[in-house]
Design a protein that fits this description.
The complex is a heterodimer of chains A (326) and B (437). Chain A starts with a helix and ends in a 7-residue tail after the last helix. Helix content of chain A is 73%, strand content 0%. Chain A is mainly α and 326 residues long. By secondary structure, chain B is of the alpha/beta class. In chain B, strand 1, helix 2 and strand 2 form a beta-alpha-beta unit. Chain B has a domain of 186 residues: Periplasmic binding protein-like II (D-Maltodextrin-Binding Protein, domain 2), CATH 3.40.190. Chain B contains 17 helices and eleven strands. The longest helix of chain B is centred in the last third of the chain and has 21 residues. The N and C termini of chain B lie far apart (62 Å). Classes of the chains: A mainly alpha (326), B alpha/beta (437). At the A-B interface, helix 1, helix 2, helix 4 and helix 13 of A face helix 1, helix 3, helix 4, helix 16 and helix 17 of B.
């Protein structure tokens, strides 16, 4: 520090009187400066992001269980064994993994579609001028703003078979059904989970799409109206194309979130969801942290990572505008 | 040289400083101060208020200071996992007694050989049954019993009296028979509003426990001698069949119970929607908090004509144990804390407060446990209980077998469950276990 401060004072003077011979050295130092500035960030990024990913990949090649967790560097390396048993559709573990994978894909598609549709409708509604608009806007954000486990516990009361609001409505009030169905166990649990997840997620779509709608120039609609475009045509021919970049990003983010959904089934059904509502994240959690089979859990995690990366790259290339188009 | 070098030096220093944030800064403290993770046993009790005075006494007696941290059940397993893998954990900690063999397999825990047993007061002070659930067979205990639990059959004495039933069921057949008589539509609206029995059909944990208890009654075991799973043996299929039938063909359990996971069965017992319920020792406390005391406790009965090889049990050895970590720098002090907590004074105070069963014979003579229900449960633990399988894969077995039972109840609640369904579900669990093991 001492040395540095005298040098710093000196360098100002030296810089003023410096001749041509030192400009090259200066230029070289100047080139180093940006790297020096990002060095802490690079180091942190390596420690925080890359480290765990590499550790996860390494774990997936080992048989890390409670027997060797204490000295985890000594876990026996089994190479592709975990992947082989995970990917074999006829094996007991692979069979469940494939089934869970397909279920997770279905869940993601349903939740993203429902959230997007609801978010779009709400954004369209709130984007027009009417009294009480601000109140609606605030109200729509409630599911997103409240802590997940609070709202999901609320939903678990709604879905309760004997005392839940849903069955009260369907059976006692309206008589749509004669028998009280179960919503938290058996096949219906999947649909209960989709409803709750979509309800959680749609305000995000709403928020993003509302911002996008605000940026659609009013003149376009005016021109459309002059040409006799209906509301639906305005939506299809003007709104959707203009907000397309935002749409693409919103759907990608919601897709990734839903695919990795863990909290909603965990809170709705407890640590072990019914089979019909077991998603990949719950399955991986079970293998890694309940069964202590961290090698297998990590292998599944890596497979999910590869799948999501592949889909994301394809998606970004297909649907997101290139920079030079923008 | 100029600014760049300073910048580089500063950045590197910053990075080092940041990286250092995660490090351990209390290494080298040599005072006799130990850390104790106590599990949160009851939502209605402030653990710290109960344990602190006891630990103060311990400090006075031994000069060892104890830093107490109360950990909820939900997070305990994962925290232990982290403690074992990082070597940074407490000196002493509470664990579920069914985890004993799993934890022992990690090698992260002090094994209680002769010397260590002597240091905590000797093998003889403990109830033999409790000591059976402390680690793998043939190895010294890796955990020590602390709070005992046992299953029992709770029954509503008022409902029994009104129906003229004077004795609680002593066999499974009587249980079903009594259950049928008490499953009635009391207000005549066409819906049954009083069921013979209430269970936690949605709980995988309870499902695996009952599969074990009824399985032993049938002469089954969940693992064979070499440690391989035998979830789908004829005996286990018969046991699960018997459990599912309570809802499916005996119809003494409400289909709604397929969804129950927490305390629903007790509420139903207390408010008369059910005449009987399976519970553990702490159930007494839960019933007391519902201000309900018209109940009796007996053993979960077995078949009147026990199958060959069947065991006459009505419970597993359940409860909370205490363990000492190998990474502890104060093993002697840790052992003296284990000894203190399993001595009569602490055993009486703690078990009385939690409603659990003392794990040492001496404490049962204390007037605090002069209660019929409690003495019955104590007998269930001492004489009619066997330890849950002491294998490292026990947690996975609970998930798989319990998960299968849970799904079968979900199926029974809305339709029929055949023998093949049960066998298929248990075979599936069995092959999952084989594949992972």
């Amino acid at each position: 520090m001492n040395v540095g401060s005298t040098r710093r004072g000196g360098s100002v003077r030296a810089g003023l009187s410096m001749g041509r011979e030192s400009t090259r050295a200066n230029r070289r130092r100047g080139r180093l400066l940006p790297y020096a500035l990002i060095l802490p960030a690079v180091l942190l990024e390596t420690v925080v992001h890359l480290g765990p990913i590499l550790a996860g990949i390494w774990t997936s090649l080992t048989r890390l269980t409670q027997l060797n967790i204490r000295d985890w560097t000594g876990a026996p390396v089994v190479w592709w064994d975990n992947y082989r048993s995970g990917l074999d559709p006829s094996g007991p573990i692979g069979g469940v993994l494939w089934e869970t994978f397909l279920r997770t894909v279905a869940f993601t598609v349903l939740v993203v579609a429902a959230s997007w549709a609801l978010g779009m409708m709400a954004a369209y509604l709130v984007n027009t001028e009417f009294r009480g608009r601000a109140a609606f806007r605030a109200l729509f954000l409630v599911p997103f703003a409240m802590p997940t486990f609070v709202t999901v516990i609320g939903w678990s009361f709604v879905f309760d078979r004997d005392d839940g609001a849903l069955n009260h409505l369907l059976v006692d009030q309206t008589g749509v059904l004669d028998e009280r169905p179960f919503w938290l166990i058996g096949g219906n649990a999947f649909w209960a989970m989709v409803v709750v997840a979509a309800w959680r997620l749609w305000p995000f779509a709403f928020l993003m799409l509302l911002a996008a709608l605000r940026n659609v120039p009013g003149e376009l609609y005016e021109a459309g109206v002059l040409d006799g475009a209906s509301r639906w045509q305005q939506f299809r021919r003007i709104t959707l194309p203009v907000i397309r970049p935002v749409n693409a990003v919103v759907i990608l983010i919601m897709g990734l979130w839903s695919f990795n959904e863990f909290t909603v089934p965990y809170v709705l059904f407890g640590p072990q969801p019914p089979e019909s509502a077991t998603l990949l994240a719950s399955l991986i959690y079970e293998h890694s942290f309940v069964n202590f089979n961290m090698g297998l859990g990590s292998a599944m995690n890596v497979l999910v990572l590869l799948f999501l990366m592949g889909v994301s790259v394809w998606y970004v290339r297909t649907f997101l505008p290139r920079t030079h188009d923008a | 040289m100029g600014r760049p070098r300073i910048m580089i030096t500063a950045s590197a220093a910053l990075a080092v400083a940041l990286a250092g944030c995660g490090g351990d800064d209390n290494a080298g403290a040599a005072s006799a101060r130990i850390t104790y993770w106590a599990v949160s046993m009851s939502s209605s009790i402030e653990e710290a208020d109960l344990l602190e005075p006891l630990l103060d006494t311990f400090t006075e007696e031994t000069g060892v200071e104890v830093e107490l941290e109360v950990v909820p059940w939900d997070g305990l397993w994962n925290r232990i996992l982290t403690a074992v893998s990082s070597g940074q954990g407490p000196d002493v900690l509470d664990v579920g007694n069914t985890w004993s063999a799993s934890l022992q397999a990690t090698g992260g825990f002090v094994e209680f050989g002769e010397d260590a047993m002597e240091a905590i007061g000797g093998t003889d002070k403990f109830i033999p049954a409790s000591l059976a659930a402390t680690g793998a067979d043939g190895l010294p205990p890796a955990t020590i019993p602390l709070y005992g639990q046992a299953y029992g059959l709770y029954y509503n004495t008022q409902i029994f009296a009104e129906a003229g039933i004077t004795e609680p069921p002593a066999t499974w057949e009587e249980l079903v028979d009594v259950g049928r008589r008490l499953t009635v539509d009391t207000d005549g609206d066409g819906d049954i509003d009083q069921w013979g029995l209430s269970i936690l059909g949605g709980s995988a944990g309870v499902g695996s426990h009952l599969a074990f208890i009824l399985g032993r009654q049938e002469g089954g075991t969940l693992f064979d001698d070499s440690g391989g799973p035998t979830f789908d043996s004829d005996e286990q299929v018969a046991a699960v069949r018997r459990y599912i039938d309570l809802m499916e063909s005996d119809r003494i359990v409400s289909p709604s119970d397929a969804e129950s996971t927490m305390t629903e069965a007790l509420s139903k017992l207390a408010d008369g929607r059910a005449a009987m319920a399976f519970g553990q020792a702490t159930t007494r406390q839960a019933l007391a908090s519902l201000e309900f005391d018209d109940y009796g406790v007996t053993r979960i009965p077995g078949p009147a004509d026990p199958p060959t090889g069947g065991s006459d049990i009505g419970s597993m050895v359940a409860g909370t144990n205490i363990a000492v970590m190998n990474s502890s720098e104060h093993v002697d002090e840790a052992l003296s804390l284990v000894g203190f907590l399993t001595d009569e004074h602490a055993q009486v105070t703690l078990n009385e407060a939690y409603g659990t069963l003392p794990v040492i014979e001496g404490a049962y003579q204390d007037e605090a446990f002069d209660d019929d229900g409690l003495q019955t449960l104590g007998t269930n633990l001492r004489d009619f209980a066997e330890p849950f399988p002491q294998v490292p894969e026990v947690a996975q077995m609970e998930t798989l077998v319990g998960g299968a039972v849970k799904e079968l109840f979900a199926q029974a609640a809305t339709g029929t469950v055949t023998e093949e369904d049960i066998r298929a579900a248990l075979s599936e669990a069995d092959s999952q276990m084989e594949a992972a093991g």
